[in-house]
């Protein structure tokens, strides 16, 4: 069983509202501020991208549904700041102190922003072993879709693909394994594959017999078919 | 780290989201952990400097230069980096090409992964539950909501961005654009056409 964020294929949603091409990047000023605070706090180096995704995913389902996009970011950020000991609950209540923080030396300065954004965070790593699968090979996604290191933990295998038959389309090299990295268990790089699934493997009533869905899946998400 | 703490710290912040951001920013600034000028810089970068014009230039170049397109489809990351497009949320780029037989469409069903250096910050619809839930299962109905109807003979490939690989759709070059410059062609490339929910504009 996965979490509330894993919504691929879910029924019950209304139409997509495409908006206008010239809609502002940030619909509200606080949206931009929320993104920027999140990126700047991330630059303190106390968590990684997989931990921050997991922080949003493990909001309780009621909050996940009711919060707007950037509210989820803020909630995940606040939770991470406390869990990693950067801030205390008293700080969030506005009852903390303003004493110099041990991490202040790591503060992201305005002049460093361009460099930090340009560097990004590449996820590819040297491969610990040869990939087990080759392009064209038939594979099956693990079922159930679940983190197999931490019960209820972060995974990037969507539930809709669990158990489905697919074919390796491309090998991306080795990438950090989110299921491990999100829980501080190390980067554990593994071969990452682009896997092609026929829509009929995934859905009871596919729209078109030739439609396909491609997912990027780590080697441990797959077994030979 | 516990992953199910039902006494979530975030509930201690003010309920109004704008006030919640301000509270967090104030707390972190007072402790010397963030620099408000850095926040302004981040916002300015994504509001004014990095957006879909970058991706449009890549597409227009691919339309104009078959050798460039071949290299882009083979391994896009170094090719777009040469044009100055790299960095956060664009560390690993794959370009996929639309043809009369295949239409490509990109989604992130698990969150909101999107090629920031090429397209900027994703629009609200891309991050919506409706798009995330439906794009993989009923892409044709979703396309219709964007005003796009594909020929019956065109198959759809939906790319679910489940890892750190980010996808750029190379739409088909519109007819009647022979002899146009890369800059002129880029004006025809819409953001949505590079996500696969739209088609490029026809030339005037």
TrEMBL record, chain A:
Single GO MF annotation: nitrile hydratase activity
Source taxon at top rank: Bacteria
InterPro entries: CN_hydtase_beta-like_N (IPR049054), CN_hydtase_beta_C (IPR042262), CN_hydtase_beta_dom_C (IPR024690), Elect_transpt_acc-like_dom_sf (IPR008990), Nitrile_hydratase_bsu (IPR003168)
Keyword entries, A-Z: Lyase
Family under the similarity heading: Belongs to the nitrile hydratase subunit beta family.
Function: NHase catalyzes the hydration of various nitrile compounds to the corresponding amides.
Name this polypeptide is given: Nitrile hydratase subunit beta
Species annotation: Jhaorihella thermophila
UniProtKB/TrEMBL annotation, chain B:
SUPFAM superfamilies, A to Z: Nitrile hydratase alpha chain
Enzyme class, spelled out: lyase
Protein residues bound to Fe(3+): 108, 111-113
Keyword Metal-binding tagged: yes
Family of this protein: Belongs to the nitrile hydratase subunit alpha family.
UniProt EC number: 4.2.1.84
Classification via InterPro entries: CN_Hdrase_a/SCN_Hdrase_g_sf, CN_Hdrtase_a/SCN_Hdrlase_g, CN_Hdrtase_asu/SCN_Hdrlase_gsu, Nitrile_hydratase_asu
Residue intervals of the Nitrile hydratase alpha/Thiocyanate hydrolase gamma domain: 17-197
UniProt keyword terms in alphabetical order: Iron, Lyase, Metal-binding
One Pfam family, short name: NHase_alpha
Lineage: Bacteria, Pseudomonadati, Pseudomonadota, Alphaproteobacteria, Rhodobacterales
Name of the protein in question: nitrile hydratase
UniProt key word Metal-binding: yes
Species of origin: Jhaorihella thermophila
Catalytic activity, reaction form: an aliphatic primary amide = an aliphatic nitrile + H2O
GO molecular function: nitrile hydratase activity; transition metal ion binding
């Amino acid at each position: 069983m996965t979490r509330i964020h894993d919504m691929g294929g879910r029924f019950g949603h209304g139409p997509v509202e495409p908006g206008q091409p010239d809609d502002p990047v940030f619909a509200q000023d606080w949206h931009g501020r929320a993104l920027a605070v999140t990126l700047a706090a991330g630059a303190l180096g106390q968590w990684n991208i997989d931990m921050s995704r997991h922080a949003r995913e493990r909001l309780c389902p009621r909050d996940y549904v009711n919060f707007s996009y950037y509210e989820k970011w803020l909630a995940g950020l606040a939770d991470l700041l406390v869990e990693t000991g950067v801030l205390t609950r008293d700080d969030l209540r506005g009852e903390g102190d303003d004493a110099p923080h041990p991490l202040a030396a790591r503060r992201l300065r305005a002049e460093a922003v361009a460099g930090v954004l340009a560097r990004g965070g590449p996820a590819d790593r040297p491969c610990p072993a040869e990939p087990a699968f080759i392009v064209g090979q038939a594979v099956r996604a693990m079922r159930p879709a679940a983190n197999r290191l931490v019960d209820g933990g972060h995974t990037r295998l969507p539930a809709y693909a669990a158990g489905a038959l697919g074919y390796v389309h491309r090998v991306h090299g080795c990438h950090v394994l989110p299921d491990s990295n999100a829980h501080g268990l190390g980067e554990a790089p593994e071969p990452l594959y682009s896997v092609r699934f026929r829509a009929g493997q995934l859905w009871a009533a596919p729209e078109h017999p030739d439609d396909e869905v491609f997912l990027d899946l780590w080697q441990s998400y797959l077994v030979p078919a | 780290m516990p992953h199910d703490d039902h006494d979530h710290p975030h509930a201690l912040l003010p309920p109004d989201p704008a006030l919640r951001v301000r509270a967090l920013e104030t707390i972190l600034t007072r402790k010397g952990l963030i620099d408000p000028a850095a926040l302004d810089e981040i916002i300015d970068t994504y509001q004014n400097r990095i957006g879909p014009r970058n991706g449009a230039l890549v597409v227009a170049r691919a339309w104009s230069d078959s050798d460039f397109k071949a290299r882009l489809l083979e391994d896009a990351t170094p090719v777009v980096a040469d044009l100055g497009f790299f960095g956060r949320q664009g560390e690993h780029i794959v370009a996929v090409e639309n043809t009369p037989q295949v239409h490509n469409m990109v989604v992130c069903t698990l969150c909101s992964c999107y090629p920031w250096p090429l397209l900027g910050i994703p629009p609200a619809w891309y991050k919506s539950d409706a798009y995330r839930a439906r794009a993989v299962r009923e892409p044709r109905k979703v396309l219709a909501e964007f005003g796009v109807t594909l020929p019956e003979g065109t198959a759809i490939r939906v790319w679910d961005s489940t890892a750190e690989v980010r996808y750029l759709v190379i739409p088909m070059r519109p007819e009647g654009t022979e002899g146009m410059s890369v800059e002129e062609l880029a004006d025809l490339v819409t953001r949505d056409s590079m996500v696969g929910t739209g088609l490029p504009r026809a030339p005037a």
